[in-house]
Amino acid sequence: METYIFQHVDFEGPGEILPYLESKGHRVHVVKLFDGEPVPNSTLVDFAVFMGGPMSVLDEDKYPYMADEKQLCRELFAAEKPVLGICLGAQILANAFFAPIHKNPEKEIGFFPVTFENGFSVNAFHWHGESFEVPEFAMPLAYSEACQNQGFKIGRAVGLQFHLETNEATLKSLLQNCAEEHATALAAGEKYVQSKEQILEIAKTAIPEANRALHEFLDAILFNG
Known about the structure:
The chain is an alpha/beta fold. The radius of gyration is 16 Å and the shape is globular. The chain has a single domain (about 1-225), classed as Rossmann fold (3-Layer(aba) Sandwich). It has six helices and nine strands, in the order E-H-E-E-H-E-H-E-E-E-E-E-H-H-H. It has helices spanning about 15-25, 65-80, 90-95, 170-175, 180-185, 195-225; strands at about 1-5, 25-30, 45-50, 85, 100-115, 120-130, 140-145, 150-155, 155-160. It has a nine-stranded mixed beta sheet, with helices on both faces. Strand 7 and strand 8 (about 150-155) form a beta hairpin.
């Protein structure tokens, strides 16, 4: 299977997604959009994963490749191919189907429970200040205390506002490269922003749980439609 992972910044990579897909025999291509690598033709793509990033989907004028990503989402949807969008990637996917993107009432940085519509809950990692509306005809998937729309499914495309792919390396990379945003949120007393010490401590137990959920989620997207 030809799998393409679209990476928006150098410090926010695919984490646990990459080794898991490689273990399943996927040929994985990481497209470094931040280095000017192009979005491929949809006929070359069997499975697409759109990663996160600190920019906004509303900044398409600054990041014109986002228009290409949205078009790819629509073409893969029409071809009934699987798609996964994570954080910014979920917002790109939602906006591809004309759903509004807006500032979330609360900024979320840290590990907080996400509850799925079937009642399953996982302590997932979050780092976002914006959120999406669920696209028309899509099925809501999950919510958290701070964010009403944490996930949706439309056809074989799934958007998740949170990060199940986080591992120790990607977590430390985010904390290092987004330290200023984190410090500002802490100084403002944001309700759903944990300290670096809290995040690193909770990560010891939360990351293995989240990665197990990721594996199940990927299998469901790829094999169950």
